[in-house]
Specification:
- This protein has about 475 residues and is of the alpha/beta class.
- It has 3 domains: about 10-105, NAD(P)-binding Rossmann-like Domain (Rossmann fold), CATH 3.40.50; about 115-315, 3-Layer(aba) Sandwich (UDP-N-acetylmuramoyl-L-alanine:D-glutamate ligase); about 325-470, Mur ligase, C-terminal domain (Protein-Tyrosine Phosphatase, Chain A, Alpha-Beta Complex), CATH 3.90.190.20.
- The protein has 15 helices and 21 strands.
- It has helices spanning about 25-35, 50-60, 90-95, 105-110, 125-140, 195-200, 200-215, 225-240, 285-300, 305-315, 345-355, 370-385, 410-415, 430-440, 455-470, and strands at about 20, 40-45, 60-65, 75-80, 100-105, 115-120, 145-150, 155-160, 165-170, 185-190, 220-225, 240-245, 255-260, 265-270, 275-280, 325-330, 335-340, 360-365, 390-395, 425, 445-450.
- It has a 10-stranded mixed beta sheet, sandwiched between helices. A 6-stranded mixed beta sheet has the order 16-17-21-18-19-20, sandwiched between helices. The chain has a 5-stranded parallel beta sheet with strand order 3-2-1-4-5, with helices on both faces.
- Helix 7 crosses helix 8, helix 9 (about 285-300) runs antiparallel to helix 10 and helix 11 runs parallel beside helix 12.
- The chain starts with 17 loop residues before the first strand and ends with a helix.
- The relative contact order is 0.09.
- The model has no long low-confidence stretch (mean pLDDT about 90).
Length: about 475
């Protein structure tokens, strides 16, 4: 559902009592938490109960399971997820009562008004980079507010109302939300084709990032290893916007050299304008995470903080929820979970996972996300999955979309170039733990991939392996 952004977004303190429809999602839960921390009365609802809803309740936020018109009683403002449909009874009641209705983007903007905003944008890597930047700034002595698209163990959650002037925000482009923000500083990690169900064409998607340039007040950090971000940097230069380039080549103002991946860690040397400034050591594997850290570092330097303090904060970052997250190990099998659902993200996580296999097999269980995305990228998804040793592909997780008989996971499966004995049609999600338990053997690394409910598989698989082990 698309909700129009009002011409004037009111500060959060003027919204009155606020009700969230879809509060169990990472985006809305972050906004709800900060509002509650500011003393605003907040309630929320979601289709099903979850660990996150339990955490919100523990913080004093009343959360309902299921959607009823009565849940909006007493609210003055309603903030809704784009996944909510027009016939949702709470939306119907909101419109009937004439209540103020905001999309997620307006809710976040209401919190950022009056703060120094640092927005992290791009097709991939936003959550990791936002959490890295937040941890770096905290270690450097700032107390930033932040809203992040996933739980971050090192931060104790996905949101916080800090005492400092800085507000670090993950700026989502999927529905054009980032175009209402007015950041002082911005990071654009990459501009890769995605969300074409909303934008229609790659050109329209790229144009949205060009429009984003007009919203930035002070500076832009771009990663020149990505062609789309590099082009955006050139356009920013032409518009007179201070542009800081990061990457692994000599074209970067802040450059990473000597990149080393060693198991679950990554390190590299940093030069700024050609002068060596020190080493960054990370607790997460993969070149793509090193580039995320470099962008976060560059933004922190632009804010005037010292390299040593920022690097120390980056070293403390142990990953965000569902971003190459180690869920556990049992019977000699390690199980990781990741949110990756785009070909570029799949490639990056499989490359990182390969550095962790230590001679064992890489077994990937992938759940395609959205029929619209699978229609466009299904073959590329299958191509990237071919870097694994064994692949299981499930049915498509439709999320907010309706089924399309012409789009199935066969578009992905048919593009996987491994032999038939190494490619499996996934069972229903409820049956995946048993299916994977029959496939794995000691020494394997299992990676569950996708933005849907495939994330529930990893803990259930580990429980099975602890009870019954695996066949050598």
């Amino acid at each position: 559902m698309r909700i129009e952004v009002p011409t004037v977004v009111e500060p959060a303190e003027k919204l009155g009592r606020v009700h969230f429809i879809g509060v169990g999602g990472a985006g809305l839960s972050a906004i709800a938490r900060i509002m509650a921390q500011r003393g605003i009365t907040v309630t929320g609802s979601d289709a099903r109960d979850s660990e996150l809803l339990g955490a919100l309740r523990a913080e004093g936020i009343q959360c309902f399971v299921g959607h009823k018109a009565s849940h909006v009683d007493g609210a003055e403002t309603v903030i809704a997820s784009t996944a909510v449909r027009e016939d949702n009874p709470e939306i119907v009641q909101t419109r009937r009562l004439g209540l103020r209705l905001y999309p997620r983007s307006a809710g976040l903007q209401s919190l950022m008004l009056g703060r120094r905003v640092l927005a992290v944008a791009g097709t991939h890597g936003k959550t990791t980079t936002t959490s890295m930047l937040t941890m770096a700034l905290r270690r450097a002595g700032a107390d930033p507010s932040y809203a992040i698209g996933a739980e971050v163990a090192g931060l104790g959650g996905n949101a916080h109302d800090g005492a400092g002037e800085i507000f670090v925000a993950e700026a989502d482009e999927s529905d054009g939300a980032f175009l209402i923000y007015e950041p002082n500083g911005a990071v654009v990690l990459n501009v890769d084709a995605d969300h074409l169900d909303n934008y229609g064409t790659l050109e329209a998607y790229q144009d949205a990032f060009v429009t984003f340039l007009d919203r930035i007040g002070d500076y832009l950090v771009v990663c020149v290893d990505d062609p789309g971000a590099a082009r955006l940097g050139d356009l920013a230069d032409a518009r007179g916007l201070r542009t800081v380039r990061v990457g692994t080549t000599a074209a970067a103002d802040v450059q990473a050299t000597g990149l080393r991946n060693a198991g679950a860690s990554t390190s590299f040397e940093v030069t700024v304008s050609g002068a060596a400034v020190g080493t960054v050591a990370l607790q997460v594997p993969g070149t793509h995470y090193a580039l995320d850290a470099l962008a976060a570092l560059a933004a922190g330097l632009q804010e005037g903080y010292a390299f040593g303090d920022l690097a120390a904060g980056l070293a403390e970052h142990a990953g965000a929820r569902r971003r190459m997250e180690l869920v556990g190990e049992a019977a000699g099998v390690r199980v990781y979970d990741s949110y990756a659902h785009h070909p570029t993200e799949i490639r990056g996580d499989l490359q990182a996972a390969r550095t962790l296999t230590a001679g064992g097999r890489l077994v990937v269980c992938y759940q395609p996300h959205l029929a619209s995305r699978t229609r466009v990228f299904g073959a590329e998804m299958g191509h990237e999955l071919s870097a694994a040793d064994v692949v299981v592909v499930t049915e498509i997780y439709l999320a907010r979309e309706d089924p399309d008989p012409a789009v199935t996971s066969a578009l992905v499966l048919d593009a996987v170039t491994l032999g038939p004995e190494r490619v499996h049609v996934g069972a229903a999600v409820s049956g995946l733990p048993e299916q994977l338990a029959a496939i794995v053997r000691p020494g394997d690394l299992v990676l569950t991939l996708g933005a849907g409910d495939v994330t529930t598989v990893a803990p259930l698989l580990l429980a099975l392996l602890r009870r019954g082990g695996v066949t050598p």
